[in-house]
Structures are given as structure tokens and as C-alpha cells.
Amino acid sequence: MDFANKVAIVTGGAGGIGAAAAREFHKRGARVACCDLNGEAANAVAKECGGFGKRVNVADEGEMAVFIAEVERDLGPVDIFYANAGVGYTDGPNGGAAGAPNSNWEKAWQINVMHGVYAARHVLPGMTKRGSGAFLITASAAGLLAQIGDAAYSATKAAAISVAESIAISHGDDGIQAHAVCPQYVKTNMTKDLPEVMTSVDGMISAEDAARTIADGVEKNDFLILTHPVVADHSAKKAGDRNRWLGGMRKLRRMLMEMNGGRTI
């Protein structure tokens, strides 16, 4: 799929990867609508990109459905949907994998997983009828590898990859592309407080660089879109010897805790 004359929606479009992706999609010819809890910023980005933006709680299926209907009424049928909005939390003061409160787990599930499901319910029927479309989900490298200190993020991002795989399996023959976008370290508000020892190994890239990789992946119809190609190597090593990989992650966690005065990150 190319982006010329296409209509796209980007969630979490007020800043970070979402805003950069909206601008990159528009640069390649798409008109882009954005939504975010920060509706004013989402609208400002979308206005640059030939569309409009609104405040939408993506965890509310009704709000998502209304926004999608407004986009299709004002801009045309949705060709590309990018379910990019996401949240991350720490495991809690004791650093245990089950340490975060239920409210954090439930919010992570609703935003990181279900908002993509809600969107799919409302855009895939039209895409199927037209015989074309692209559906992207930001699933994160954490969905492939795990994120130290945030079990809810790791679990829900792994689930997001599974949702994207199901869309590819069920709708690939309908002419619909599915993409699991798995960024590693990208300069956004979510990563600004990460310790340098984590981000320096594979490198921190700009949101604009990530957006170009994402758009290229759509044009090439790559299911797995990696901002850091080395993540594929890490994932292969994990699959090849999971015990060794888990041991390495424990070692990294111990090192990070020592640097943080014995506290979890």
C-alpha cells in the first residue's frame, strides 16, 4: 500500500510516535485524523496533515466508534488505521511482577489491547468490503522481549502482537495488511526517564526516524515493523535459549537496581 490519497487515523496522535507518524503519512500523500486525550494538540497535528483531531478516550468503544464515523463522513473511508495510543506503569514499590494495582493492569489492557480491538470492529468491515486497507498496532519491542519493571506493559504488548497476528490471519485474504509496530527506544515522554544504561546499548532514535521506518513498513507490507533491527536478533536468541535469555534479563535487572540504590526501576 502507498499513502497517496488515502485516509488515515492515528490514535495517540498528540505527540511522540503518533504525531510523527501522522506527519510522515501526510508527507507521503495521506490525509490524517488524530485522536488523543489531549484533543487540542491532536487537532493541531491533524490540521497540519489535511484532517482534524479530537479528544477521544480510546478505552471507550463508543467514543472510538463516533470518531471513526466522523472521519469517514468528513474525510472519506478509512484506508489506514494506526492504533498507537498506549500506557506504561511500574510494577509497584516492591518491584514484584504482580506488584502493580489492578487498576493499572485493567487500564493497560483496555488501552494497549482493547482499543485496537474496538477500532478493528469499526474499520475492518469497510476495508473488507473495499478489498483493501492497513491496520497497525503499536506493540513495542517489549511485546517480543519484555520490559524490566513493568509486567503489565510487557503482557499487554505481547497480547497486542497476537491481535495483529489474528487480523493478518483472518483478513489477509481480504486484501487487508496487518502490522505489529515494535519500537524499542524512541525519544518520547514514555522513555524520557529510562536509565541510560538501558537505552545506550541499542540506541535511542527520534520519533521522526521511527515514523519513517513505520511508513516504509506499510509500503513494503512487513508484518513486523522494527525501529531497531537488532530486536529481531534479540528475539531469535530468546526463542533459541529462553533459559539463557531470562538469566541475562535477571542480570540486567540486578545491575539496574544496584545503580538505583537497591530499588526497582
Could you write a compact summary of the structure shown?
The chain has 265 residues and is an alpha/beta fold. The chain is built from ten helices and seven strands. A seven-stranded parallel β-sheet has the order 3-2-1-4-5-6-7, sandwiched between helices.
Written overview of the protein:
The chain is 53% helix and 13% strand. With 265 residues, the protein is an alpha/beta fold. A seven-stranded parallel sheet has the order 3-2-1-4-5-6-7, with helices on both faces. Strand 4, helix 4 and strand 5 (133-138) form a beta-alpha-beta unit. The radius of gyration is 18 Å and the shape is globular.
Averaging pLDDT over every residue, what do you get?
92
Straight-line distance between termini: 41 Å
Number of helices: 10
Question: How many strand elements?
Answer: 7
Question: Major sheet, described briefly?
Answer: 7 strands, parallel
Q: Into which percentage range does the β-strand content fall?
A: 5-15%
Q: What would you call the quaternary organization?
A: single chain
Write the H/E string, N to C: EHEHEHEHEHHEHHEHH
Q: Strands of the largest sheet, in order across it?
A: 3-2-1-4-5-6-7
- Secondary structure category: alpha/beta
